[in-house]
């Protein structure tokens, strides 16, 4: 149990060490380290936003793993080894990765929606005109119905 806790603590410290530069936006676009997808590798703004979120998730996961290892190591003196510590550490890491992917995909979707709105300002501005025309047509129809 103690060796397992030590390994998890070292893994957590490694994640903290890898996550902080990503969060601080110190990692330029590259093919070896960071949140690498085709979109992040082609757009610096998306690279830094995705890595900031991913770095935060990885850093938090690393801190949680270190705390888990310390608590698990202390409890290891009291309980027989069961592998639950490794399972919990794996769960923490999985949640961090899923959170990073979810956040990055939301950022990209918001960015694409904003770009679509900016590229078609006439469509957005014409909608109130369409609704005014529709309201005027409805009023005219009601007026003709009242006359009958």
What does this entry look like structurally?
With 148 residues, the protein is an all-alpha fold. It has one domain (2-120). The protein contains five helices and no strands. The model has no long low-confidence stretch (mean pLDDT 80).
Nutshell version of this structure?
The protein is mostly helical.
Oligomer: single chain
Kindly name the structural category: mainly alpha
- Tell me the domain tally: 1
Please tell me what the overall shape is: elongated
**Elements, N to C (H/E):** HHHHH
Distance N to C terminus: 88 Å
| Number of distinct helices | 5
Provide the fold topology.
Layout: H1 2-23, H2 38-42, H3 44-76, H4 84-119, H5 121-147
Key features?
83% helix; 148 residues; 0% strand
């Amino acid at each position: 149990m103690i060796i397992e806790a030590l390994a998890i603590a070292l893994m957590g410290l490694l994640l903290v060490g890898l996550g902080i530069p990503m969060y601080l936006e110190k990692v330029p676009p590259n093919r070896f380290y960071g949140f690498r997808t085709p979109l992040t590798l082609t757009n610096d703004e998306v690279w830094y936003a995705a890595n900031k979120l991913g770095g935060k998730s990885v850093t938090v996961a690393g801190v949680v793993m270190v705390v888990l290892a310390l608590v698990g190591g202390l409890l290891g003196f009291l309980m027989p080894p069961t592998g639950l510590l490794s399972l919990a550490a794996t769960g923490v890491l999985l949640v961090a990765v899923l959170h990073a992917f979810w956040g990055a995909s939301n950022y990209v979707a918001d960015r694409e929606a904003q770009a679509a709105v900016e590229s078609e300002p006439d469509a957005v501005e014409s909608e109130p005109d369409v609704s005014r025309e529709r309201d005027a047509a409805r009023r005219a129809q009601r007026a003709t119905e009242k006359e009958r």
